From TrEMBL:
<dbReference type="InterPro" id="IPR044859">
    <property type="entry name" value="Allene_oxi_cyc_Dirigent"/>
</dbReference>
<dbReference type="GO" id="GO:0048046">
    <property type="term" value="C:apoplast"/>
</dbReference>
<keyword id="KW-0964">Secreted</keyword>
<comment type="function">
    <text>Dirigent proteins impart stereoselectivity on the phenoxy radical-coupling reaction, yielding optically active lignans from two molecules of coniferyl alcohol in the biosynthesis of lignans, flavonolignans, and alkaloids and thus plays a central role in plant secondary metabolism.</text>
</comment>
<comment type="subunit">
    <text>Homodimer.</text>
</comment>
<comment type="similarity">
    <text>Belongs to the plant dirigent protein family.</text>
</comment>
<keyword id="KW-0732">Signal</keyword>
<keyword id="KW-0052">Apoplast</keyword>
<dbReference type="GO" id="GO:0009699">
    <property type="term" value="P:phenylpropanoid biosynthetic process"/>
</dbReference>
<dbReference type="Pfam" id="PF03018">
    <property type="entry name" value="Dirigent"/>
</dbReference>
<protein>
    <recommendedName>
        <fullName>Dirigent protein</fullName>
    </recommendedName>
</protein>
<dbReference type="InterPro" id="IPR004265">
    <property type="entry name" value="Dirigent"/>
</dbReference>
<feature type="signal peptide">
    <location>
        <begin position="1"/>
        <end position="21"/>
    </location>
</feature>
Length: 184
């Protein structure tokens, strides 16, 4: 009698679990289809290494960095202004926050990892994430957009960088960025 009762209880719980699973499946809502958009952004990145208020600071280096012709091993944290025009007084759109590291022994080439964090307008609070190789002496460099947040959630695309101005005495640079994005 006990084995028959145990089988009946087991069957009852399996039946109950099946009913609950079917009810759960019927309660799911359809996934909303979002339309993908393509956007183009152009702005200027201001990398300031010297002066009273630097926006780029070397935070680490290898023992051989100072003797390397490419500064191999240097790591620089940034909080650089992103502006509408190349002048430092131009309208502020956001900040480039992250780091770049000298990652090449053959040429001046950086590993760039940064977020373009917008601070005003429609995109205030949204970010575009960039990570890639930047051979800074090339006229045009291209790095991938690997994601974003806010209005740029699930973004993908690329960023092209072109040096607008460079001061060899201070190391300060102004770089024009053109960013092409696919996002929702």
């Amino acid at each position: 009698m006990a084995p028959q009762f145990a089988k009946s209880i087991a069957f009852f719980f399996c039946f109950l679990a099946t009913i609950q699973a079917k009810n759960f499946d019927q309660q799911k809502k359809p996934i909303m289809k979002l339309k993908e958009k393509m956007s183009h952004f152009r702005f200027y990145w201001h990398d300031v290494l010297g002066g009273r208020n630097p926006t780029a600071i070397r935070v680490a280096q290898a023992p051989s960095t100072n003797t390397s012709p490419t500064a191999f091993g240097a790591v620089v944290m940034i909080d650089d202004a992103l502006t509408v025009g190349p002048e430092p007084t131009s309208e502020l759109l956001g900040r480039a926050q992250g780091f770049y590291a000298s990652a090449s022994q053959q040429e001046i080439g950086f590993l760039m990892a940064m977020n373009f964090a917008f601070v005003q307008g429609k995109y205030n609070g949204s970010t575009i994430s960039i990570m890639g190789r930047n051979p800074v002496l090339h006229e045009m460099r291209e790095m991938p957009v690997i994601g974003g947040s806010g209005l740029f959630r699930l973004a993908r695309g690329y960023a092209q960088a072109r040096t607008h101005a460079f001061d060899p005495k201070t190391g300060d640079a102004v770089v024009e960025y053109n960013v092409m994005l696919m996002h929702y």
